Automatic annotation (TrEMBL):
This is RPP14 protein. It comes from Corythaeola cristata. GO terms for cellular component: multimeric ribonuclease P complex; nucleolus. It comes from the Eukaryota. One of its GO terms (molecular function) is ribonuclease P RNA binding. It holds the Pfam family RNase_P_Rpp14. Keywords: tRNA processing. GO terms for biological process: tRNA 5'-leader removal. Belongs to the eukaryotic/archaeal RNase P protein component 2 family. PANTHER family: RIBONUCLEASE P PROTEIN SUBUNIT P14.
Amino acid sequence: ARPGGQMARAEPPAAAFERRVLRSAAEHHYLRVRLELPDGGARPSVAQFKQLVVSALRELHGEVGAALPVDVLIYDEKTLSAILRVISSGLVKLWSALTLLGFYQNRRCAFRVLQTSPFLLALSGNSRELILD
């Protein structure tokens, strides 16, 4: 007993905290993108769109970037929108290459990355584009 009649209290052992950063275990990432061509003109076909993506990768990251496996899952020529699939380790390379691309056939252009997710289902609907009757 301590002076004053108090019982000595055992302090609980300090909790050991371990920081864990969980990276997505997903093999692929999906991007919903839109190509903006402000001056109009011919719209790229799906093959030309894919070639534009590959050339953007080559321009920024060289031949190693151009070899990055990117798939065009859906392409709408009318809206110039697409859903791209890339291996997760190449997401930053693809995103940066698309962001920095400025020309298509000597015309100004810009890629807009609208959504990205490791889950394809997450891109199936966008609440921001929801039209209620």
